[in-house]
Amino acid sequence: MTTIAPRATTAAVPAGRRRRNLDQWAAWGFLLPVTVYLAVFYAYPLFRNIDLSLRNYTVRSFVQGDAPFTGLANYGTVLGDPTFLPALVHTAVFTGASIAFQYTVGLALAVFFRQRFRLSATLRAMFLVPWLLPLIVSASTWSWMLNSDSGIVNTALGLVGLGPVNWLTSPQWSLVSVLIANIWIGIPFNLVILYSGLQTIPDSLYEAAALDGASAWQRFWRITFPLLRPVSAITLLLGLIYTLKVFDVIWIMTRGGPTDSSTTFATWSYRLGFGTLLPSFGPAAAVGNLLVVTALVFGLVYIRFQRKLEAS
Amino acid sequence: MKTSTPRRLAGVAVAVTAAVGLTACGSTGGGAGAASTDYTVWDPYPQFDGNAAWTKLVESCGDKAGVKVKRTAFDTTDLTNKVLLAAQQGNAPDVLVVDNPVVSTLADAGVLAATDDTKIETSGVDPNLLGAGQLGGKTYGTPIGANTLALFYNKAILQAAGVDPASVKDWASLTAALAKVAGAGKKGITFSAIGTEEGSFQFLPWFWGSGAQLNQLDSAQGVAALTLWSDWLKAGYAPNSVINNTQTTSWQDFAAGNVAFAENGTWQLGNAKKLGFEYGTITVPAQHGGAAPVPTGGEFVTVPTQKDTARYATDQKIVSCLTNPDNIYATDATLSYVAPAAAVQQKQAAADPALQVWVDAVHAAKGRTSDNLGTKYPKISEQMWTAVQATLSGSKSPAAALQAAQAAAGKG
User: Fold this and answer.
1) Distance between CA atoms of B347 and B4, rounded to whole angstroms?
2) Which end of chain A has less Cβ packing within 10 Å, N or C?
3) pLDDT of B202-232, one tens digit each?
4) A30 in contact with B, Cβ within 8 Å
5) What ipTM did this prediction achieve?
6) Tens of pLDDT along A36-66?
């Protein structure tokens, strides 16, 4: 740039304008790839999904491409469906309980691993296994373990004298079962992020607190927890979005059943769109959009929280 | 030189984007719809790779028709949506092998060409099998083979429990046999009652065997069929895990050697030879004796509609080659299916007498979309498997579950 500056000042005015024009073109050129990428991979699919949810698609009109515009009729169908309320409750319970347990256990383990002891690295690596396994493997393994008749869990319960539980096949337990599996899968993610967050808290703070006579409990609540707040916020937000859209684990273990007892919005949307011989794309897209909106709302809440944090 | 670097980069970026954009547009234009000498065949047999007999057959049928054929295999649950999407884009395959209950849905969507237009011969096919491919008086394909359900039994368990398989003639005698087996400390029967189409497929022999009809799910006969299943679970004759069993996991239970009977399909015959015990098969009994009507499984060879109708002549040649008696005999041997035509069935039974039970079962079989149900079937089926799940998991009585199912199915 140093070579241009004198030339720019000595040159006539039009030349400078041309330069500015060229720079602007270059700027647009740089912007173009990401714009195209966003348009092709985000904006268009989203638009298509909204469009799908506003039309009455039958298999025939899907192929012919002449589905009539029906406004919010699909949303009406979805809201009035007997599956809606159970799916809403299950989604809330599944998401809420998953994140609560994943975060608490993840944080406890992270604090535990902060005290460097022998084999702590090995042990920490082993805790990552659930995260590394493909979901189909972990979900299938869980469904074998929880099998009513030949599962290891019921065998173990039998040894201590407890009756067999129909984990996956009774309406009372199916949601609990998929919840247990999902918590197990999500803990390593929380552990890793929170553990790296803990590394950023300077040791000197703990030393000072220890000198002032703070107990371990006080050190956690007065130092670790407040200083970890930004990391906690992003962990919870990511956990929320991941959990809202959890599909594989539930589908493999229970298919959302028996009779909707473990159906969430994610599995319901799939079932509407692809789970029967006759797809109903409109309502499926409508349920999908409800999920997108929910995730968006929590995303905005996060941004607000972050602003507040920066301001303070 | 220093100053121009960012701008040159920008130029490259623009060029790259333009190129990406162009290829993206280009790829949607291609495919099977374009008038080319390449013909495409889609099938739901991902288990057959490039060296499999089926693949070679498809290719040789193309050679005989004077064209090059490209075969693509999909997972069966995936195939319907792939075909719908392809049809929407105007590049459906030339020949499509597809699961029979889907045929009427695709035909209703205008995706398939009727055999009147494609001149595909269907006269030799058993009418009860062809029924699954008919809608509104037109036929939309020809079956490549049929599979269906029967009861496999473990000879050793029945002997130990003192049950003569020949005595199982109706529901009462079957339940009595299950009670004896349970008394001897084994499980009586396993089946698949999962909340998908598989669950409905497995329930249908009992549902139809009671005399119930699909357009009236909550009839007294329908309730009797569901009560039969739920009583087996309550009495412990059937394991509770049937609620989540697919037909494959149910077979694994049977193969483990702790269950006397298993309701399963023709396609397991290959695996049955690998069992560590002796087995036999009987047809699924109807409520008051005789063979229950069983649903037909198996695929249809169809021709999706093409803009360029001149392709039908070649498509017809490929289809007739794939479905001529010799080729069907070979294909059905690898798929472990019963042939759709009487002449080939006789040849199959002559070669392997054990197949006779299955040939009989296929004769008593009925298409799920038959009785002119067509596209109503998927909705009825979804409600039916939901009712089965509700009852077996104990949340509703058979009558209440089927009433709710009928109300929901009737609305659509």
Assistant:
1) 79
2) C
3) 999 999 999 999 999 999 999 999 999 999 9
4) yes
5) 0.78
6) 999 999 999 999 899 989 988 888 888 887 8
- Domains, chain B: 38-143+299-336 (3.40.190.10), 149-296+372-411 (3.40.190.10)
Token duo for residue B104: 């009427």
Which tokens sit at B99? 């699961």
Q: Chain A residues with CB inside 8 Å of B14's CB?
A: 29, 32
Q: Where are the beta strands (DSSP E) in B219-278?
A: 259-265
Contact present, B257 and B154 (Cβ < 8 Å): yes
**Residue B144: exposed, middle, or buried by beta-carbon count in 10 A (0-12, 13-18, 19+)?**
buried
- pLDDT over threshold 60, residue B348: yes
Share of chain A above pLDDT 90, in %: 43
CA distance B237 to B90: 52
How does DSSP assign B327-376, residue by residue?
HHHHHHHHHT-B-SBHHHHHHHHHH-GGGHHHHHHHHT-B-TTTTTTGGG
Among A275-289, A298-312, B29-43, name the one with the lowest average pLDDT: B29-43
Which residues of B are less than 8 Å from A29 in CB distance? 10-11, 13-14
pLDDT at A290: 93
Task: Judge whether B102 is closer than 8 Å to chain A, CB to CB.
Answer: yes
Q: How many C-beta atoms lie closer than 10 Å to residue A214's C-beta?
A: 16
Q: Which of A26, A30, A277 sits opposite B105 (nearest CB)?
A: A277
User: Which of A62, A82, A258 comes nearest B393 by C-beta?
Assistant: A258
φ, ψ of residue B281 in degrees (nearest 5): -135, 145
Please count the other Cβ atoms lying within 10 Å of the Cβ belonging to residue A216.
Answer: 11
Residue A190, C-beta contacts closer than 8 angstroms, at least 6 positions apart: A102, A103, A105, A106, A107, A110, A235, A239
Place of tokens 């008696």: B325
How many angstroms separate the CA atoms of B198 and A104, rounded? 40
Using the Cβ of B351 and the Cβ atoms of chain A, whether some distance falls under 8 Å is answered with no
CA A65 to mean position of chain CA atoms: 33
Strands B38-43 and B95-99: parallel
In whole angstroms, how far apart are CA B340 and each of B124, B263, B281?
8, 22, 21
The interaxial angle of helices B100-108 and B377-392, nearest 10 deg, is: 130
Q: Which two tokens stand for residue B112?
A: 């398939």
Contact (Cβ atoms closer than 8 angstroms) between residue B132 and residue B367: yes
CA distances from A157 to A145, A176, B234 (A): 12, 16, 21
CA-wise closest residue to B69 among B118, B30, B32, B44:
B32
Q: Which of A22, A29, A148 sits opposite B240 (nearest CB)?
A: A148
Residue A258: cis peptide before it, omega within 30 degrees of 0: yes
> Quick count: other Cβ atoms within 10 Å of Cβ B286?
20
HEC assignment per residue over chain A: CCCHHHHHHHCCHHHHHHHHHHHHHHHHHHHHHHHHHHHHHHHHHHHHHHHHHCECCCHHHHHHCCCCECCCHHHHHHHHCCCHHHHHHHHHHHHHHHHHHHHHHHHHHHHHHHCCCCCHHHHHHHHCHHHHCCHHHHHHHHHHHCCCCCCHHHHHHHHCCCCCCCCCCCCCCHHHHHHHHHHHHHHHHHHHHHHHHHHCCCHHHHHHHHHCCCCHHHHHHHHHHHHCHHHHHHHHHHHHHHHHCCCHHHHHHHCCCCCCCCCCHHHHHHHHHHHCCCCCHHHHHHHHHHHHHHHHHHHHHHHHHHHHHHHC
Q: Which residues is B125 bridged to in the sheet?
A: B341
H or E element that contains B42: strand B38-43
Cα B119 to Cα A225, B65, B95, B124, B125, distances in angstroms = 75, 15, 14, 14, 15
Within 13 Å, how many C-alpha atoms sit on residue A288's CB side? 23
